[in-house]
Backbone:
């Protein structure tokens, strides 16, 4: 197997009740070199970040020899919706991502993470789809001028009524038509839609630029071993299809991971190590 634990980013999902410095120190202790940074208050609330804040973050990263791989602004639970029919909400949402692209450039992060938003449940989905396509296109174009690529993730149906599976994700990427827009495979969203890694490979292939590798029942965004999803099968399939990008453990669960997020990350790292070792043994 060619997959390696070096492809696992450190992440601050579930660190919202701890200081930012604790998160960084834990990533050093877990031997992570690259990070996916969730834009959560109070740690890293993107609209609030000043030049001085970013300078401090750069220094903290340099002191620990850490690099940012991907920035993921909060965009599901907060009032952020790039597909909204409400003008002020959509405009402010797009502005948030434009600022996030600037933050990526400041921190030399190559990827900005996007989701499609949603329309009202009782409106034409075609209109909401087009608002999302236009917004993703605007954000992606702006990020490109800063040397930043974007990746787009499908969401569970409870989170979005626009992009919930790999065919819809491919359609949106094609509609946007930007060469520097890639796809995210999230194993929970994939399982919730009844899909497999093979389905994602069929519809998206080399467009898959980032993976949220997370356990569930099938949902829940759990540490590996706390759910029922087949980690071994997932990593074997991704390896067979030649995936060379990064993985992130996106731990949310029921909120209790926030009591000890480092332990949850260690649990998932151990499970990933066992999965790739098991595949090597079978080979």
Residues:
């Amino acid at each position: 197997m060619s997959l390696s634990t070096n492809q696992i980013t450190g992440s601050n999902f579930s660190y919202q009740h701890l200081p930012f410095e604790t998160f960084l120190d834990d990533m050093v202790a877990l031997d992570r070199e690259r990070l996916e940074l969730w834009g959560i208050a109070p740690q890293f609330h993107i609209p609030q970040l000043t030049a001085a804040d970013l300078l401090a973050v750069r220094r903290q990263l340099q002191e620990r020899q850490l690099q940012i791989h991907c920035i993921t602004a909060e965009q599901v639970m907060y009032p952020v919706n790039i597909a909204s029919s409400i003008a002020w909400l959509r405009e402010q949402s797009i502005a948030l991502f434009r600022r996030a692209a600037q933050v990526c450039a400041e921190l030399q992060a190559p990827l900005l993470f996007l989701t499609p938003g949603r329309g009202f449940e009782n409106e034409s989905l075609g209109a909401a789809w087009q608002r999302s396509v236009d917004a993703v296109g605007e954000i992606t174009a702006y990020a490109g001028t800063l040397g930043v690529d974007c990746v787009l993730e499908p969401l569970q149906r409870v989170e979005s009524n626009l992009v919930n599976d790999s065919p819809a994700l491919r359609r949106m990427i094609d509609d946007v038509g930007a060469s520097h827009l890639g796809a995210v495979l999230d194993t929970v969203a994939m399982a919730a839609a009844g899909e497999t890694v093979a389905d994602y490979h069929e519809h998206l292939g080399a467009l898959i630029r980032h993976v949220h590798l997370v356990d569930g029942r099938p949902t829940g965004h759990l540490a590996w071993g706390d759910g029922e999803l087949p980690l071994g099968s997932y990593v074997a399939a991704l390896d067979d299809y030649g995936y060379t990008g990064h993985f992130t453990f996106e731990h949310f669960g029921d909120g209790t991971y926030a009591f000890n997020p480092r332990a949850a990350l260690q649990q998932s790292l151990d499970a990933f190590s066992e999965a790739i070792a098991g595949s090597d043994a079978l080979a």
User: Anything to note?
Assistant: Residues 261-282 form the longest helix (22 residues). Residues 197 and 237 are 6 Å apart (CA to CA).
